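Researcher: I've been going back and forth with a colleague about how C2 domain-containing protein might be arranged in three dimensions. Neither of us has a model we trust, so I'd like an independent prediction. The organism is Hibiscus sabdariffa, in case that matters for your notes. Sequence below.
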Amino acid sequence: MSKLVVEVVEAIDLMPKDEHGSSSPFVEVEFDGQRQRTQTKHKDLNPSWNEKLVFSVKDPRDLDYKTLDVTVYNDRQGNRGHHRNFLGRVKVSCALVPSEESGSSVQHYPLDKRGLFSNIKGEIALKIYAVHDGVPQEPVVQRAVPESVVAENEETGRLQEPQSEKTPFEEINTNRFDEEQQLEKTPFEEINTQMFDEEIKLEEKKEKKKKEQEVRTFHSLGTAAGGPPPAPPQSAPPPVKENPPVVETRTDFAKATPPAASIMHMQVPRQNPDYLLVETRPPVAAHLRYRGGDKTSTTYDLVEQMHYLYVNVVKAKDLPVMDLSGSLDPYVEVKLGNYKGQTKHLEKNQNPVWHQIFAFSKERVQSNLLEVVVKDKDFGKDDFVGKAVFDVMEIPLRVPPDSPLAPQWYRLADKKGDKIKGEIMLAVWMGTQADESFPEAWHSDAHNISHSNLANTRSKVYFSPKLYYLRVHVMEAQDLVPHDKGRFPDPYVKVVVGNQIRPTKVQQRTINPIWDDQLMFVASEPFEDYIIISVEDRIGPGKDEILGRAMIPLRQVPQRFETGKPPDPRWLNLLKPSKVEEEGDKKKEKFSSKILLRVFLEAGYHVLDESTHFSSDLQPSSKNLRKTSIGILELGILSARNLLPMKMKEGKMTDAYCVAKYGNKWVRTRTLLDTLTPRWNEQYTWEVHDPCTVITIGVFDNAHTNGSKDDARDQKIGKVRVRLSTLEIDRVYTHYYPLLVLTPSGLKKHGELQLALRFTCTAWVNMVAQYGRPLLPKMHYVNPIPVMNIDWLRHQAMQIVAARLQRAEPPLRREVVEYMLDVDYHMWSLRRSKANFHRIMSLLSGVSAVCKWFNNICYWRNPITTCLVHFLYLILVCYPELILPTIFLYLFVIGIWNYRFRPRHPPHMDVRLSQADNAHPDELDEEFDSFPTSRPSDIVRMRYDRLRSVAGRVQTVVGDLASQGERAQAILSWRDPRATAIVIILSLIWAVFIYVTPFQVVAILFGLYWLRHPRLRSKLPSVPVNFFKRLPSRSDMLI
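Model: Here is an independent structure prediction for C2 domain-containing protein. You can compare it with whatever you and your colleague have in mind.
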């Protein structure tokens, strides 16, 4: 006898039901009238059972029609479930149950509600498989059509294999176009529409015959309908190609199926838990409600307080001479336990000035004494000059916003403690990361870093340069003088601004050309560049001669604000290249060619330096046109865990630091050296001008902490994006975000980053009004930038920002800026194309669900619902003034109902949506390929053939859509004179009929006809559909 094995593994995050905030859960499983349960796990909201429940299967051929009911209860009194609370349930279809244990895996199912007002949460992990007399079923049996596909094809009259719903990209994913793939599709492709007619006839037979036909035909393998049952496992089944199976279904089969959501749980596994958010409750002041108590908590309430021992070494005076030469090269060594910090040594100076701050983490304090030792740098062993000793327990505590602690003079002592000549000025205090000395301090975890590399580990704040669009309107030129007097030139203009070069179109054979071209560039403050305008003669391919050149300083270019009138054009003299920079030659030149230009800076645009899909700033370039802020965004970068070691070859772990970007403000945390669990606990604040913006946080491995070359690249560890409009006001979000990186070898998780976020609104009216304003400034809509120029301008803006931030100290390197701005986001990627296709299909699935619901209403699947729809339709027809109020009330009710299911966590990188978890290696290799390609010709040829195949499928779909549109145009175009005559005659009849008949009567008759009972419906397509399909299209005119 066959068995169904249900292994109850565990449950996660169950709803507490008792007064102690816990539950005592057990699981009850029901299958085909059999009921079993697990043991009770007392006081456990995340129980683990690992129990196997075995059920008898009376007829294995009926297993596909069965449903497994799994219910979780809370045992209130521990008496075997007689007093219990409902914790959730799951209904699982047995249509896709594996036939052996090796083919099954643990699946996580979210717990469903029992009623309208049930308060349920959590999920349950199950492992389900079938055992058929100890012998696994043949794989062909498992290819029976799932219930959801049967229900979907009940109205369409076609039966398709579930795999046929894949996208064109997935069907050629493995680049296999052989017969094996064709054989896999053959059995379901050869089913014709006659099978649907037989299904309809089955519905009209008696109940007894229907049951017999169900057993006899639905599970037949390799035989026709009504054939004998499949052969025993000992006999091999015939090949699929020679004798394809014929599958029949019943139209009433969908009535007995469980809800579609339960079926989808088995067919669509949940996302990998490693890629999900993990909510945390760190001991930050915002969670512990310390506001108003500790002063440091009011400023740094999104991070954990970290206490540090600060030592400010200012200077020294009257130091004794230690060398025979009478010189002294002093430096200071600050020692606390095993940690030592050193200042720079100053040559031949008895009154040195250092101004250097040291910070020792209180968690790592290993001694009760702090020693500040002054030493003399020598070739051999450094000489001891003197020291000052402090008791750590007696060091005062400083709390911002108190003024900085004033340094004091301390007499130096020798090794025995006796006072000697010389004094040192110090300030020693206990503080937190809120101290203003924190960013510039030398930290104890960086004790192995040299002074030259110490700057690369510090936290800094950067600002992107202010960017403008520069518009150069090249109008015309006059009196051009070619080098060859015997021919007319073919002139064009080349404009150069910094590293940006844009040419105009070439005018043929003229000395007075008119171009009327508008060229756009990106300029940044301070305006140090020159605009170089060159008029060149196109002599031949790749051979040009300069006819004249002019230069305009960028700082002299006027600005245009919003939609004001642009500046007047002006004529410029075109000088020879050798005389452009000689001002005196301008006066000596008796004759020169001239060019008419209009040059100005567009201050009313927002310069796009990142993709508009996740832009962090939408303000115009001019500060006078910017709106006031509507709120404040606070970000706490707490810690990271489970980071991958990025420096294994060097014998080290990871030197991690974070970079956050919002608007024009970039922040960089300090680098924590050689650790896989860094704890930054740094907090930053931004002004928010638009809630529909995105903040980006990236984690990188610092490659410049050990004297690496300048061309060494910081490795990316991962990135997180958070859209502000998805955050609730004044709520603190603390989560671990997975750091996911897509590499040529596949998707990798490099660790988790813990962040704390809070969005505070300071102007509610302005924020609400912001939703009704345009996303971009007014100029983007009044005078839009051509689409062809947007991507080029965005790339130039990214290059300017990267080049400017790379010149800071410490530099924010180019690879970091490019990764944060997603420079290659607009490059071709088959994976992204598949993701976008699935996004469109998910949107259309909602429309499809509405159509299916309405089709069920028309076919009276649920008589009560259909009667209610009839009643509502009659009311709306009789009282049409209720139509719009009903629609808006319905939208209101849906919104209120969905409030219970609103997202509880901020959005993050979705692996399933990005198609990153199942991307083919060749797709990733193509995505990370350079442009132009660097791959061998055979690989490029294969990818080209694949792209042609995809384009062929898209071409077919576009052609079908065009055919339908052309048929609609042919209704009244007399392309088919008989069809057009029929339409216009019927239109006249309908016009007269509707004119003499009240509209409400017509609407009622039309609605009742549309919602008529299935017995009054024909199995054939309707007359309008047949008429429309017979209309001519222009597909037969294609060559």
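Researcher: What would you highlight for our discussion?
Model: I'd start with this: The CA atoms of residues 870 and 1008 lie 8 Å apart. After that, consider the following. The first strand starts at residue 2 and ends at 12.
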